[in-house]
Write a structure and sequence with these properties.
Gyrase A, domain 2, Alpha-Beta Plaits, Elongation Factor Tu (Ef-tu), domain 3, 3 domains, six-stranded mixed beta sheet, six-stranded antiparallel beta barrel, 19 strands
Length: 370
């Protein structure tokens, strides 16, 4: 069976009991969906859902040079955030390409928690260890990806539902901030106001031995109001917000400038390939990240589809695409081959048919999380 060759999260048996359809995702056997991706998607947009995202990589860097190392390896500026805050950033290679995108938590001035993509765990470990040794840094580097679980509780009513499980006032945690305290009777749980859906919610980090208890407590706290959700709805939710996915929208051949992530590049600090990215931005000669709508009913963009102009010239490609359950139409992310490509008269090539698309700004939908 497929499951025998894949890694499993500690909640694998729970997913099976709940009737989840399991798939290979980043080398892990993960739930694709429990009921339907549409039901799960709309539950997160309207009420609440819970995701097991324990496959994500989880690193601790501890030591007086931790900040120095991460500042050099990533493009964003960690000095701009305080203890108790998190930051979205990316590792880049010597040519400016994205090794991985990640979220960094500042536990203290010496201790950082790095959350990386599951598919890149080993690659990131080698990259970090190489630079620790190269600089002779005295840093304790711990990979506890397989020892801790990560649950994401997302949706406009999610915090209201789970508030009775903790004394921490969840509504008062600012976006991209975190608290460490008691949750469902378990002490020292990191509760972060982050997520990959765009809807209100938190992510919680817990030792594996408590994961099943907390998973079940969350599902029981408001019976049938928080539903388990799988990878399919997580993908459609992130796409409605225009969040990039590594391996599709991001890779080592794409720079953060090309990926539309210039806002996480802080040129005032020193980091790997800074000069290369500065030159790329100054010249303006690079691919351009785009987001688009397909107005024609029933036409859905897919990864690998081509973008063409009115004369059938290849001008770009699709990296992610779905049917948006909220907008009820196809939406997609992709790249123009030329940064100066005009946004009008662009077509999606589907089985030799030209389907007109409309290039739009992100996010595709506006969510009020007040």
């Amino acid at each position: 069976m497929m499951e025998n060759n894949l890694k499993k999260t500690i909640l694998y048996e729970n997913h099976i009991r709940l009737g989840a359809k399991m798939i290979d995702y980043s080398g892990f056997c993960m739930p694709l969906q429990y009921t339907s991706s549409l039901i799960e998607h709309m539950s997160v947009r309207n009420k609440a859902g819970i995701f097991d995202v324990s496959h994500m990589g989880k690193f601790i860097l501890n030591g007086k040079h931790s900040m120095d190392l991460v500042q050099y390896l990533t493009t964003n500026d960690l000095s701009k955030i305080k203890i108790g805050q998190a930051q979205y950033s990316c590792f880049i290679n010597n040519h400016g390409g994205i090794i991985d995108d990640l979220v960094i938590y500042k536990i203290s001035e010496k201790k950082l928690l790095l959350i990386v993509n599951a598919v890149n765990i080993e690659k990131n470990k080698k990259w970090i260890n190489y630079h620790i040794k190269k600089n002779s840094y005295n840093i304790e580097f711990i990979d506890f990806s397989q020892k801790y679980s990560l649950l994401a509780i997302q949706g406009p009513l999610s915090l209201f539902y789970i508030q009775k499980l903790t004394n921490i006032p969840l509504q008062k945690i600012p976006f991209y901030n975190f608290e460490i305290g008691e949750f469902s009777g378990i002490k020292n749980v990191l509760i972060s106001c982050t997520g990959y859906t765009g809807s209100k919610g938190v992510e919680i980090y817990i030792p594996n031995e408590y994961a099943e208890k907390i998973w079940n407590d969350i599902l029981e706290v408001e019976k049938n109001k928080i539903i388990p959700c799988g990878i399919a709805s997580r993908n459609s939710l992130r796409l409605e917000m225009g969040y990039r996915l590594y391996g599709q929208d991001l890779c080592e051949e794409i720079t953060p400038i090309e990926a539309g992530l210039s806002w996480i590049i802080k040129f005032e600090k020193k980091f790997i390939a800074r000069e290369i990215l500065q030159k790329q931005k100054k010249k303006g000669e690079y691919k351009k990240f785009i987001s688009f709508l397909v107005e024609e009913k029933g036409k859905i963009p897919r990864q690998g589809y081509f973008l063409i102009d009115k004369d059938d010239n290849l001008i770009g490609n699709v990296t992610s695409g779905i049917f948006s359950p909220v907008l009820k139409k196809g939406i997609g992310l992709g790249y123009f081959l030329n940064q100066k490509q005009k946004k009008d008269s662009v077509f999606l090539s589907i089985r030799k048919k030209k389907i007109p698309i409309k290039v739009v700004n992100l996010p595709f939908i506006n969510i009020k999380n007040d």
